[in-house]
């Protein structure tokens, strides 16, 4: 039986990018703790499969096809989740992508696409969910940063800017919404085996070995490594935790 501190039964969570990778790992964690889930992403086949996976855990789940760079679509998504699932208690801003080029080769439209997908979407989704979170008597917003919220990388100028921005946006919202009993925190994943990093490993030679050598845990992360932190930050267990940015990185950020 889930301890009541970590019990999410009766809660409703939106997970952007919840149809795969780290988002699905977090959605599974929330579902196992009892939350109903709205899976937000563009790929409808992947979202349908994720919804089936989550329903098998005994909760209700819906897919809401949404491009998180589209403000009107996000507002419609939030309204649909509140109507169909009855409320919104938890928002995970996880959708993200990267374009890997050094700054002198990156085009402005590429810069904008990364910032819009990774950072502006978190603002628009948070703003769209805020009235329902407040109406629920409080809530939890979890934003997904990166090791590039901390470190630089020659091949990821826009990505690093977006993920640095996510941490400061998290701190701003934590301050703004504390009076509404809404806690806002960020998770900073290390190097995790997903579609995103499969692409990076193909494009950046030697990356796989460098990550293994640089990570004290001696392995790449797995999407299941994100279930526990998501439940903690979504549950009453973290009610006095706000504005933080917690690395989930096998020690990558503290490697001497
Ligand atoms: P994946 O590529 O596996 O997943 C990305 C998710 O984002 C997909 O579900 C995708 O769904 C969704 N997405 C992307 N663009 C949009 C869009 N415009 N509208 C709606 N959904 C979108 O990557 P990860 O699981 O690795 O990444 C998840 C988050 O974790 C990202 O924010 C990433 O930056 C971050 N992260 C990942 C790390 C890693 O090592 N893997 C390390 C640090 C941070 P769909 O295609 O259906 O739209």
Automatic annotation (TrEMBL):
<dbReference type="GO" id="GO:0016616">
    <property type="term" value="F:oxidoreductase activity, acting on the CH-OH group of donors, NAD or NADP as acceptor"/>
</dbReference>
<dbReference type="InterPro" id="IPR036291">
    <property type="entry name" value="NAD(P)-bd_dom_sf"/>
</dbReference>
<feature type="domain" description="Ketoreductase">
    <location>
        <begin position="11"/>
        <end position="180"/>
    </location>
</feature>
<dbReference type="Pfam" id="PF13561">
    <property type="entry name" value="adh_short_C2"/>
</dbReference>
<comment type="similarity">
    <text>Belongs to the short-chain dehydrogenases/reductases (SDR) family.</text>
</comment>
<protein>
    <submittedName>
        <fullName>2-deoxy-D-gluconate 3-dehydrogenase</fullName>
    </submittedName>
</protein>
<dbReference type="InterPro" id="IPR057326">
    <property type="entry name" value="KR_dom"/>
</dbReference>
<dbReference type="InterPro" id="IPR002347">
    <property type="entry name" value="SDR_fam"/>
</dbReference>
């Amino acid at each position: 039986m889930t301890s009541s501190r970590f019990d999410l039964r009766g809660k409703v969570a939106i997970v952007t990018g919840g149809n795969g990778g780290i988002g699905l790992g977090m959605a599974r964690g929330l579902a196992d703790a009892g939350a109903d889930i709205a899976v937000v992403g563009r790929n409808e086949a992947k979202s349908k499969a994720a919804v089936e996976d989550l329903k098998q855990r005994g909760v209700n789940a819906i897919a809401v096809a949404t491009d998180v760079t589209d403000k009107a679509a996000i507002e419609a998504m939030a309204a649909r989740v509140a109507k169909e699932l009855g409320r919104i208690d938890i928002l995970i801003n996880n959708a993200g992508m990267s374009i890997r080029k050094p700054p002198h080769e990156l085009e402005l439209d590429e810069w904008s696409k990364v910032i819009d997908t990774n950072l502006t979407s978190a603002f628009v989704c948070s703003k769209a969910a805020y009235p329902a979170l407040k109406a629920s008597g409080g809530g939890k917003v979890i934003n997904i940063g990166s090791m590039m919220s901390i470190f630089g990388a020659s091949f990821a100028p826009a990505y690093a800017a977006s993920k640095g921005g996510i941490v400061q946006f998290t701190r701003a919202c934590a301050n703004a919404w504390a009076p509404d009993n809404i806690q806002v925190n960020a998770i900073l994943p290390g190097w995790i085996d997903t579609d995103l990093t499969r692409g990076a490993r193909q494009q950046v030679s030697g990356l796989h070995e460098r990550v293994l050598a640089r990570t004290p845990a001696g392995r790449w992360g797995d999407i299941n490594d994100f279930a526990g932190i998501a439940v903690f930050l979504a549950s009453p267990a973290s009610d006095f935790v706000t504005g933080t940015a917690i690395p989930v990185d096998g020690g990558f950020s503290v490697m001497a």
